[in-house]
UniProtKB/TrEMBL annotation, chains A, B:
One of its GO terms (biological process) is lysine biosynthetic process via diaminopimelate. It is an enzyme of class 3 (hydrolase). Keywords: Cobalt, Hydrolase, Metal-binding, Zinc. This is Probable succinyl-diaminopimelate desuccinylase. Residues 212-324 form the Peptidase M20 dimerisation domain. NCBIfam families: DapE-ArgE, PRK06837.1. Its EC number is 3.5.1.18. GO terms for molecular function: metal ion binding; succinyl-diaminopimelate desuccinylase activity. InterPro entries: ArgE/DapE (IPR010182), ArgE/DapE_CS (IPR001261), Bact_exopeptidase_dim_dom (IPR036264), Peptidase_M20 (IPR002933), Peptidase_M20_dimer (IPR011650), Peptidase_M20A (IPR050072), YodQ-like (IPR033687).
Amino acid sequence: MAATIALPETELRAAIKEAVAAGFERQLALTQELTRQASIRGHEKSAQDVMEGALRERGYAVDRWQLDPASILSHPGASPIDVSYAEASNVVGTLEPKGGAIGRSLLINGHVDVVPTGPLDMWAAPPFEPTIKDGWLEGRGAGDMKAGLVAALAAIDALGHAGYRPASRLHFASVVEEESTGNGALACHQRGYQGEAALIPEPTGEALVRANLGVVWFTVDVKGVPAHVHESRSGVNAIKAMRRVFRALDDIEVLWNASKRLDPWFRDHPHPISINVGKIEGGDWASSVPSWCRLHVRAGFYPSVAPEDALTEIGRAIEEAFRRDPALAKNPPTISCNGFHTRGYILQPGSEAETMLREVHETLNGEKLSAITFPAYLDARVMALYDKVPTLVYGPKARAIHGFDEAVDLASLERVTEAMALFIAGWCGLEPKG
Amino acid sequence: MAATIALPETELRAAIKEAVAAGFERQLALTQELTRQASIRGHEKSAQDVMEGALRERGYAVDRWQLDPASILSHPGASPIDVSYAEASNVVGTLEPKGGAIGRSLLINGHVDVVPTGPLDMWAAPPFEPTIKDGWLEGRGAGDMKAGLVAALAAIDALGHAGYRPASRLHFASVVEEESTGNGALACHQRGYQGEAALIPEPTGEALVRANLGVVWFTVDVKGVPAHVHESRSGVNAIKAMRRVFRALDDIEVLWNASKRLDPWFRDHPHPISINVGKIEGGDWASSVPSWCRLHVRAGFYPSVAPEDALTEIGRAIEEAFRRDPALAKNPPTISCNGFHTRGYILQPGSEAETMLREVHETLNGEKLSAITFPAYLDARVMALYDKVPTLVYGPKARAIHGFDEAVDLASLERVTEAMALFIAGWCGLEPKG
């Protein structure tokens, strides 16, 4: 029998809506508990403890495993690893249908890792003490993407509250390393977790991601020639030499943005390519001409470009900038990838999964689902490129992602929870909870 | 009876020369032992232990005391203190004449603190394992100024070997904090150690310092507005904003160098003013628009300028640079002095002490002593400005001060040792060792 994909009937939709509303307080409590975990890179353990507990409590079959660098690095989609994975684990909860599968299987994916807070005094409230204000839940990671991850769990809870459970296999993956390498989602893929479609509730503002960019992280190391300041003109100041790198990166950003017309997905984006100078460190002493400076950069590039080609082009531009300066030409900078090394992906239009989500969104909101291009990394590339399945990135409205006072819009969050419940019901089919 | 100042007679000069040569191996051993102590700021204790031991062994009356920030900061010549002085001590050894003083008293001053090494792989040999190669002693601090400090001690030893000792009070001060604040020499002044002249064997290449610059250390803190990189144009990148600070500092450097014709001492120096960007740190994460960046800068300025006026002018230039950019104008950078806050000084020509040293130098080398202007900080400003005595900065030839493979020229070192012995003999007078 062919799998049936259909939006739930009116009556069931009403029951699901009610169940989402009834469970929203519990959903928020779990979102806040998860946001209280300061799960910056290397410190994701307690957040994964929360997710593991939530999955076990709900009766999922749980698989938790530590990320294995050697195994990850054997995959062409792996990014270099320059930290310990001793505390880095993924958690996957699985629901198997009791009857025969009547819908399609689904992989839900979300990440618990968050980016650093920056200076605490720039936050209105402590970033890991989530607070609700004017209909927003504030906290580092609330938007990106703990609220979405918990919302997906709450969506399945709501189906249960209405008396049902998915009628096809559903994997619920809570992963790490999304903000630095994408190796967490990749490790899930390597362990065999996939579905006939994937759903990732990143904060997209209730839009669907059509395409996203490839991303590389790299460091640029410039060596100087130190000297006492009174002979500073005989030295080469590694910090000031970095200005040439800034200029080369600016030039590349302009050039790549100018070529957006060649990309079918990003040609209409106002500014698809960002090359971000994110961190700098250099020199040891105010009174010495600094002998070293290291820049940490993240660059995006079109889905048609391989990460190694993007890095090569950037490297060439930086070397060329140094070659033009006789003092610097002797010490060309060293460029090395130390994180993201990932290709972009495209959600090919017309899949059944997308059609299902469009129907859900339009039924709920009375307006068409808009597709957006997303100029940053998404774990969706793993399912799109390696599982080769339709991967729907769709989630709530958030603000100040990676910034101060990051927050998620609670009304949007509830709508998205309902939409995910309807999508899961429609895509996986339902069987009585029994 | 008026004090007698006179170059020793020919026979005694020959005896001193011989004594310096005979003691040179022992002098080198102590220089190497001192250079083995990695006396970067905050870690000067073992170096001062070596100096204290050497002074006690030679029968000096030794005073060693911990630097007291409160007492130092009460002096107008103090620099701000942003580190602990728990391990920071000065050592002063004193020789009192046994007979009545027949010459003039002298303060010999040198510092044991050294600047950081920078990356170790840039050194031919480990920086704190001094090695002799092709007539040079290599090691961090060998040039600046452990060789000079030990040479002064060896000069007095040589007088002893020839059967004499200074016939006036001599203080031998081994100080800290010369490379960051000048508070070590200032603490000596506050404790009452001074002479009718001062001698500082910094590595001047056997020239005499006529004038030196004032110095300030300051930090520039720039705040950004962080954002996810995909919205990077809505943020303000604190690292890239620092480029405006670089430009403002470059402009100030050009401007101040252009006005060198107004300074009687530095008008002939090719490039008296250096504003050194020595250290930078900023941002937390490659994929976030960085919200902070801090620059550590050292600026020199003419002896006629007060440090507070130099800082004010720099601050104004930086603020003006930010005011011109609407995105940056909202977050003007913060500038604060975190080290050197010192005025320059001038050795007024014509003092008896200078005349004595000129006579010594010309007798020894058969050529005139050249006077140089020194565009960096020297502890000499303490004796010149606050003791108001002729302060002679005169020492051996060194290379790569503050750089890699720093070294001191051993032939020059021996010449300078002899010159100092003759100067001490001439200035302080001699009495039999007895």
